[in-house]
Automatic annotation (TrEMBL), chains A, B:
<keyword id="KW-0805">Transcription regulation</keyword>
<dbReference type="Pfam" id="PF13545">
    <property type="entry name" value="HTH_Crp_2"/>
</dbReference>
<dbReference type="InterPro" id="IPR050397">
    <property type="entry name" value="Env_Response_Regulators"/>
</dbReference>
<dbReference type="InterPro" id="IPR018490">
    <property type="entry name" value="cNMP-bd_dom_sf"/>
</dbReference>
<dbReference type="InterPro" id="IPR036390">
    <property type="entry name" value="WH_DNA-bd_sf"/>
</dbReference>
<dbReference type="GO" id="GO:0003677">
    <property type="term" value="F:DNA binding"/>
</dbReference>
<protein>
    <submittedName>
        <fullName>CRP-like cAMP-binding protein</fullName>
    </submittedName>
</protein>
<dbReference type="Pfam" id="PF00027">
    <property type="entry name" value="cNMP_binding"/>
</dbReference>
<dbReference type="GO" id="GO:0005829">
    <property type="term" value="C:cytosol"/>
</dbReference>
<keyword id="KW-0804">Transcription</keyword>
<keyword id="KW-0238">DNA-binding</keyword>
<feature type="domain" description="HTH crp-type">
    <location>
        <begin position="154"/>
        <end position="227"/>
    </location>
</feature>
<feature type="domain" description="Cyclic nucleotide-binding">
    <location>
        <begin position="20"/>
        <end position="129"/>
    </location>
</feature>
<dbReference type="InterPro" id="IPR012318">
    <property type="entry name" value="HTH_CRP"/>
</dbReference>
<dbReference type="InterPro" id="IPR000595">
    <property type="entry name" value="cNMP-bd_dom"/>
</dbReference>
<dbReference type="InterPro" id="IPR014710">
    <property type="entry name" value="RmlC-like_jellyroll"/>
</dbReference>
<dbReference type="GO" id="GO:0003700">
    <property type="term" value="F:DNA-binding transcription factor activity"/>
</dbReference>
Length: 238, 238
DNA sequence: CGGTCGCTTGACTAAGGTCAAACGAGGTGG
DNA sequence: CCACCTCGTTTGACCTTAGTCAAGCGACCG
């Protein structure tokens, strides 16, 4: 966690690495960069709120964002964590126009964003961008559908294991090796992600810590024995 | 349920009504129609299978299709029912290329489809089509996310009520009035849709039938008291 | 030093899943 | 035409999972 300076060329590079501009000539990438607004935000602040008119599309360059949905009955669920390089709030620009969930920074973050007008113009002028968006949304859809099936058929323990494994994968190749999840995760987050209560999540996680499956330093979680966790996730174990 | 003749102008009209070609000039629509293959299928046959290389994108013109996902552990969940005018199997053409679920006709159906090459060319040449796809997928994503939250936080009874209400809405404005769900629904379908077991679904449904909330004729379900059902879905009742 | 926040832990409970059995309708073949 | 079988469904008895209620702990912050 070294001191990090905000350099323009870093943000440019980060934006170029987005799936959004995959396969586009560098001229277009430059244009996308020029249209972007970059905000440097502390942790725990709201980026967009559920139900509001969609004005902008966002991408996380540095840090992490929590996407949480709250139902009409007040129950809330954590839809996903956004890691660097991923986008959020983009779909609402194309549909009814209301954000379907809340987004807040889970740690100090750099967030790039584009106005609705600019973003729509980009997709109209560069079909490849539209296709890239379809790819990203499709990936998300597949992911959510998988979780839906798991939620319907698997035990709380399995779902928690899946949630952790997903987070590790999301953290990128480097972390996937070591198993460190570089996002501050509260028990409550894990619970909402896996669709259980804070209490059962706590019980399961502390049990796994005692068994040496997990380790915790500060707010971060580290998966020590991913293969075992994977077996638990598939119901082959305990 | 009158005898139905397959007339080319009917299929043309049905394809023109797809969200896919919304906002496009009729010349393009004609082109889309010319590229479509239309299959007339009996009920209960497979249209595409999970895990197969995505070759085509599909749309239901007449009838209904069941989209079912099966996990590595064998547990299966009904992702959604496809009503006339909706598409399926489209996203896989843009992502990895494997269908994420099975699709089978739930009743005799007319299915339009386009080859991968044609479909991708269409989206490249007509950005509006790509944007329409994003809209459709976005809608789906929002829907699945809502169900995910419900699955995590609500009771089995509430989820079943939600599933029925969703089906009624899907059946179109005419049916929404009368409350008839014009799709053959087995108990098992309802159960998989709501993420419960066949048994609890049966218990709940027969209880509702006895209470006059539902009626059943042949394989179809009819919702007699939608407002009451809606209150159950929101947990205000029983 | 008190307050808040996040976490842990225990005891209890109920929702709903599992197991088991049987029924009715529809279709098929003897 | 009837016997039989299959498939979808119903219903009961039981039991496990995981949610609820309640209490206490430790850490961090002002």
């Amino acid at each position: 966690m070294s001191e990090q300076k905000t350099r323009p060329e870093d943000t440019a590079k980060a934006i170029c690495a987005l799936d959004l501009v995959k396969g586009l000539p560098s001229g277009v990438k430059a244009h996308v960069i020029s249209l972007a607004r970059v905000d440097v935000l502390p942790g725990g602040v709201s980026v967009l709120t559920q139900g509001a008119q969609a004005q902008r599309a966002y991408a996380v360059l540095v840090g992490a964002v929590r996407i949480r949905q709250i139902g009409s009955d007040g129950a809330q669920a954590l839809m996903r964590m956004i890691a660097p390089g991923e986008m959020f709030g983009t779909v609402a620009l194309f549909t009814e126009g209301y954000y379907p969930a809340d987004a807040e920074t889970a740690m100090p973050s750099h967030i790039a964003s584009w106005s609705k007008a600019d973003f729509l113009a980009l997709t109209m002028n560069h079909p490849q961008i539209a296709i890239n968006i379809i790819g990203m949304v499709g990936q998300r859809l597949a992911n959510v559908q998988n979780r839906l099936r798991e939620m319907a058929t698997q035990s709380a323990e399995q779902r928690i294991a899946h949630a952790l494994l997903m987070l590790v994968e999301q953290s990128g190749a480097v972390q996937a090796e070591t198993g460190v999840i570089c996002v501050p995760l509260r028990r409550r987050d894990v619970a909402e992600l896996a669709g259980t209560t804070l209490h059962t999540a706590s019980r399961v996680l502390t049990a796994w810590e005692k068994a040496g499956l997990l380790a915790r330093s500060r707010q971060m979680l580290a998966v020590r024995d991913a293969s075992r966790l994977r077996r638990i996730a598939q119901g082959e174990l305990s």
